[in-house]
Amino acid sequence: MTRSSASLIQLSIAELDFPFTYEKALQFALFRTYGVPSISALLAATGQLTCPVASFKRYADTACMVAEMMVREFGGEEWVGVVARVNWVHGRYMPGGRTTGKGKGIRKEDMLYTLSLFAGEPVRWIEEVEWRALSDVEMCAMGVFWKGVGDAMGIEYRGLRGWESGEGWRDGLEWLEEVREWGRNYEEREMRAHEANRLVALKTEGILLFGVPTWAKGFASRVVSVLMGDRLREAMMYERPPRRYFTLVYILITLRKLFLRYLAFPRPSFLRVRAVSDKPSENGMFFLTKYDAMPYYVRPTIWNRWGPSAWLSRVMGLPLPGDQGDRFYPRGYKAEDLGPEAMRGKGVDAVTKEKDNLRERLKEREKKGTGCPVGLPLR
User: Fold this and answer.
1) 48 in Cβ contact with 58 (< 8 Å)
2) Residues 66 and 163 sit within 8 Å (Cβ to Cβ)
3) Which of 76, 124, 132, 339 is the most buried (most CB within 10 A)?
4) Predicted TM-score (pTM) of this structure
5) Contact partners, residue 278, CB within 8 Å, separation at least 6
6) What is the pLDDT of residue 367?
7) Is 265 helix (H, G, I), strand (E, B) or coil?
């Protein structure tokens, strides 16, 4: 299976078949990484999720970067641009980077763990809460796609059998199974209770539940706790909700499954749920098409300011796209500007060099065969 085919299949899963669940799975995948103290402590130290001003923008920037990698043509100019930007931003937080200093920063194992969640959590969530599980072909596509992303980001697969043996992987499905197994083992070793976990989790929960009415936040928080599972809940030092919340969540998921399986029609292509705009504006800017908290990078169209959801936001006193001048960047974003505010507009030369390196690596991969990013591990 080629990277292009895998990209189209996983995009169909995310935008047509299971858009709600896929989005929530990725949100919880990122949330789950905060149960590892080495990750949460770094985030707490940088203030990117604990600072009230920076946290909402950081959340929006992450949403943009992930959506851009998923939506744009694999290996195309826009895709290469956003991956190069992600690599540059991560590089600032690697050991010895300017933001962290010598001996501190993102560990290689944490990078692989995050990748394992982005690849595996949608599979798990769809299997547990949707009206059908993914087929082997769809899971193979997920493996091929996220393995390709991992290669482009320079992530090492140490600990995976295909890497250690030097034989690689037969296909995306085998890689996906191995990286999910590795992720589960990593959690057993590294996921444990820590104050930094709880601090970052509470701040992130505040973002996820930002639009929930005050009177319902306690209920919503307990539902989030149910969805965490025992290991993550203990690592984030949350109390186990009463049994009735588990029963309620199970009933709601079951009813939704039955409705979708027997009463809902397939989603037509013109109703696909796309997280970012297809084409840039006349100024070369892209936009998020929706938002969960603050309206960063959302175009202030008539619908976005006066549609049904906008009226609900007005009633609740929440900001709308275009409010407060340029604070929420209503003119959109460019890939080279995504990341912490202090890095905005910086690293242009380094990102350009990284884009050239990425293009060369992609061309080298294509010369070796079909363009499928699964095979012998890159060392």
Assistant:
1) yes
2) no
3) 339
4) 0.92
5) 71
6) 64
7) coil
